[in-house]
UniProtKB/TrEMBL annotation:
GO terms for biological process: response to stress. Signal peptide: none annotated. PANTHER family: TRANSCRIPTIONAL REGULATOR, MARR FAMILY (PTHR33164), TRANSCRIPTIONAL REGULATORY PROTEIN (PTHR33164:SF44). InterPro entries: HTH_MarR-typ (IPR000835), MarR/SlyA-like (IPR039422), Tscrpt_reg_MarR-type_CS (IPR023187), WH-like_DNA-bd_sf (IPR036388), WH_DNA-bd_sf (IPR036390). The lineage of its organism: Bacteria, Pseudomonadati, Pseudomonadota, Alphaproteobacteria, Hyphomicrobiales. Residues 80-212 form the HTH marR-type domain. This is DNA-binding MarR family transcriptional regulator. GO terms for molecular function: DNA binding; DNA-binding transcription factor activity. The keyword Transcription regulation applies. It comes from Mesorhizobium sangaii. It comes from the Bacteria. It holds the Pfam family MarR_2.
Length: 234
């Protein structure tokens, strides 16, 4: 785009004999015009490709760039950057342990999330899982197919509505979900001990409050079903 603007500018000042319609053109630019621009020509498919030199391109980019800010952003305007940054680091390390296990299976974090909720709520439908994960059907379909093909999850027809598809873990899927959760659980218990927090409910209430109010019911559903009150027990 930069080359095109410069060449059109030359045409408007009558330095180019006719208006160019493309960066790839075969007409000759008069020597006077060539002397004013650091143009480079390449012969490709019987066409002269005229472009600005890399030095000219970089110079124009540097002029367009803003000035660098050399001071760190701070807790100005009431923004709690300290907690925000701690959440970044905590999430990075919290997910690092299962990431290593998932890599051995060729899986990623999307597979982990599906395995977690299918194991916590056996029998939940595809629609319910989509609502929890907040992802597209296409994204879930790809991940779910891999988990089904590798015998970690099974999909059954709903007993009340045949259009529904209920999801259940297999023994293989249950074992993998536990393997992924163990290092995360150890990290949580270690953090509770190191921080001196004796009331874990304080942490639970804080994390629940971070969830959008209209979606907190999903947490309650998960808690109610974790002790045998699942879809799978009809």
């Amino acid at each position: 785009m930069l080359e095109r603007r410069r060449i059109i500018a030359l045409w408007q000042t009558q330095e180019v004999p006719e208006k160019p319609t493309s960066l790839a053109f075969s007409f000759a630019i008069r020597p006077k015009a060539c002397q004013k621009l650091p143009l480079q020509g390449n012969y490709v498919n019987s066409t002269d490709i005229i472009s600005l030199s890399s030095g000219e391109m970089m110079t124009d980019r540097s002029h367009a760039a803003g000035k660098p800010i050399r001071t760190a952003i701070t807790d100005e305007d009431g923004i709690d950057f300290a907690i925000i940054e701690l959440l970044f680091f905590a999430y990075r390390d919290f997910t690092s342990d299962p990431d290593q296990i998932l890599a051995d299976y060729g899986f990623g974090r999307a597979h982990h999330r599906v395995l977690h909720f299918v194991n916590r709520r056996p029998g939940l439908t595809v629609a319910e899982l989509l609502d929890v994960l907040k992802i597209t059907k296409q994204s879930l379909a790809r991940v779910l197919k891999q988990l089904i093909d590798t015998d970690h999850v099974v999909q059954l027809q709903g007993p009340r509505d045949r259009r529904q598809r209920e999801l259940y873990p297999t023994a293989k899927g249950r074992a993998l979900a536990l393997a992924l959760a163990r290092p995360q659980s150890r990290r949580i218990h270690a953090a509770l001990g190191d921080s001196g927090i004796t009331e874990r409910t304080l942490v639970e209430r804080f994390l629940e409050a971070m969830v959008n109010p209209e979606l907190r019911a999903q947490i309650d559903v998960g808690s109610a079903k974790m002790s045998g009150k699942s879809h799978g027990e009809h």
